[in-house]
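User: Show me a protein chain along with its predicted structure.
Assistant: Here is one chain, sequence first, then structure tokens.
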Amino acid sequence: MQITTIVWLCLAYMLGLVATGLAIAQPWLGIGLLLVGVAFEFSFRRWWRARLPVWFCLIMAGVALVATLHYQWRLPQPGSTDVSRFVPVLRSREVIVQGVVESLPRLTRSEQMQIWLQVEGLDVGPLAPRLTTSPALARGRLYVTVPPAVGADVHPGLKVKVKGNLYRPQAAKNPDGFDFQQFLRRQNSFAGLRGESLEFEAQPQRWGLWQIQRRIIRAQAVKLPAPEGAMLSAIVLGGRVVDLPFALKDQFAQVGLAHVLAASGFHVALLLNAVLWLTQRLSSRWRFGLGAVALLLFLGLTGLQPSVCRAVVMGFAVLLAVVVDRQVDALRSLLGATTLLLIANPLWMWDLGFQFSVLATLGLIVTVPWLMQGLTWLPQGIAGALAVPIAAFIWTVPLQLHTFGVMSPYSLLVNLSTTPLVIVISLGGILNALLAVLWPVAASWSSLLLHYPIALLLAIVELASRLPGSLVVVGALPLGLMLLLYGLVAVLWIRIDWRQFGWAFGLAGAALVWLPSLHWQNHVTQVTALATRDQPVLVVQDRGKTGLVNSGKARTASLTVLPFLQQQGVSRLDWAIALSRQGQPQDQPTGWQALADRFGLGHLHHVSQAVALPQSQMLAVDRSVKLGRSRGSQVSASPDVLSLRVAKQRWLLFAGLPGRAQPDLVSVSGLQNHQVMWWPGGRLRQSLVGQIQPNVAIAYGRRLDTLTEEMLERQGVQVFWLKRDGAVQWREGKGFRSTLTGVDAKGVLL
């Protein structure tokens, strides 16, 4: 079989996996691919350079179909005795889960220790007779979180008993939010456990690579000040293995250096080049053997991450080339490694780290050479150092904008200035890690040699993250625009004669990124009620002006509000209102501060002294104020009630609505003619509802009074509950839509 034929079949297989991400019915996916392949061949055969035979196009379509079926077959499904099957009966009940620990504990953003547990039974006490399946037969993989003090001494292979509450993971409740349910499913897990206590008996430790991991991490943290020791270990082993402060991770990501703290092909290339250089006087077989041991050991220590697996497979291709004394075709090596890994685990197709790794490597292979041709006026070393980050940036920025909606304008400069430091720290860290395995005390002292390079790297990252405009928010690119950008890059790769117009392609790419974003920001009018836990949050976008009602606590602001605003392309809050309390008085500014650190914050208002914030103005009752292009007024101060007018629609927002306050509210002027009511979800008096006369009611509390819901529905009111339906979004001309249930209220266009 010719190499070209294999290349086409590999591309067809990956195209089939890409198609699994399309939002269409899966049973029709394969048939659609087959028809597209046939139509493409017949329609474009005259202009298609490859002139592939019809029968081969049909084979490619068949390979794509097999890829989609293979993906569906490998997609994890809960077994009949999976622990998730017991959740509906045991919800909110305390249980004891028995099982074997699969991973070292890692710290989460909620400051809990997380471990993976292979379940070997449940102890449910007196509830056992109510279960159709014996809890002792429960099996499956469980996502477990426990307090840090409880999980500190846990390690793989340990048999434990964890007491806590089982739950099923939820899908993303907010637009473009993190889908915890899908994340766990790809890890072959369908339930989680909020652990309160963990018990285990003394057991003989089984040898494992985790012991080497822990030995290296501890040795490198003894003498180096925090967080330098943990950072050195993260550069060597990857951020998934080492607990780094999340603020530090966020800083590296903000300036475009997230790859430094993730085990990747860069580390594999450094390791392999070092081994081949040290063994250049040995026979090819010895070089292959030592190189293979180094690659496999590194793969085991980093935790079998998809991006590292890709680099290791390509590393073995280099070792084979050394044995047979041939040159490696890097592009075909990348294609072959990617295809083999996706055959072994097609779910990796949607692993973000794997996607960035493949695209960055592709950029280095196909773009660095022609960039070097344009930099011949520079010394070769400087030209190479410049071409590598530029090539990686070109091939990864479309995916970055599609996924996160942000980019750093200083990314290229920071990567260029830190590359020598990263190489020194990486090579020094690898040697120090080898020493830590043999002699931890010596490794601890020798790690001090890397103190100044690490400190300088941290200083550069800190400086770059604080520069004005260090993070540019453009909003999440639609899939079509991302593919169009990659089309422009591919044209420059394939058409050598067009590379002289690279500047024009760059301008076209910038226009594709900025013009749709600017048009969206200046023309969209929408209101989004986010699904949050601690405090209701409302985001108002009105033709270029963005406002926020409540921020939530710092965690909600950072993990829910901020990502949503970035996805929407919002770079500044023009106005904000603190409507609800935020726990203790000393906690009130934290959510707003988290947002102010990232966005510019315009006029900040509060509705009562109970929620007063520094540098904020109090809204007066019955006095209308301009909020960007919208208007707002405080209707009542006891309880706090706010009226908002966005476009031609009026929203009535209740910070709280106790039953005893409702009779007095009925007589308050300013309640009438509000199309949308936003309330905690408690019981409402019919007289109050009659006064407001809403068309849509949105409940944000943990409970929704069923009698009130039935009363509202009888009156023709569309009821949404954020806990059940997810975030609710209204867009001018399109009506209301919820995130989880997809329920529309298109009749309420208003």
